[in-house]
Amino acid sequence: MQALIIAAQEIRVGLRNRWVLATTLVMAALALSLALLGSAPTGAVKADPLAVVVVSLASLTIFLVPLIALLLSFDAIVGEQERGTLMLLLSYPVSRWQVVLGKGLGHVAILAIATVLGYSAAAIALSLKGGVGAAAWQAYAAMVLTSVMLGAAFVAMGCLASALVRERATAAGLAVGVWLFFVLLYDTALLGVLVADQGRILGQAQLDALLFLNPTDVYRLFNMTASESVSVYSGMAGPGDPTASPPAAYIGALALWIIVPLAAAIVAFRRRAL
Fold first, then answer.
1. Range of the structural domain that residue 229 is part of
2. How many angstroms separate the CA atoms of 77 and 264, rounded?
3. Angle at Cα 9 formed by Cα 8 and Cα 15, nearest 5°?
4. pLDDT tens for residues 146-156?
5. Cβ-based neighbours of 96, under 8 Å, separated by 6 or more
6. Does the model's pTM come out above 0.85?
7. What is the pLDDT of residue 27?
């Protein structure tokens, strides 16, 4: 399939530009710091050290992974056009949807490699210390999987931004705006609305629906509540009833956050005049 060939090319470019190495080192350093320092007091309070690290890493991932994903993908289309290679690429027997899908898959693969390798460093360090329960290992594996899905969602949004604009600088600015909106501004605005509303209009159902409109909130709710071993330490310092939706609903919502922006990017690229 042509999309897989393009994805493989994107991975080779990522390896050549040291994207995989740099991202892996950053994630590994931060994960190890949280694992070795954040779990230090757990022996005195009999807490599961890996469960505590899951809470810390999930909070870090919300800021770090979307930013890396957008940096990888914001120039997927517009960058090729500015370099003059887009017309050459489309001169081969490849469809526009295959270009978008291939680039998205390649960027997600780069991010997945970096995430799995980087976060595995913390897991290995804690396994050597011992005292980790089976439930915490399951929560950690789910956290790594959903971290890749969160990154894939923002890769899709980066591809969409790249397909909509004509200049690389504009795509970069749009990517920064997407990151600021979903990571910082959305929850702040939602909290302000809740304070102003005082429960008059927004009930629990409406609040749950609003939280599903932000992939970072979906990721947070899943990783803080899906496992009982983790939810004990997370405290869920935020609005919403963590038991209102099953874990499968959060996974499905993250999948939609990948599919919908990527489909929109394909449509936008098909309509784009070159």
1. 2-270
2. 14
3. 90
4. 999 999 999 99
5. 90, 266, 269, 270
6. yes
7. 86
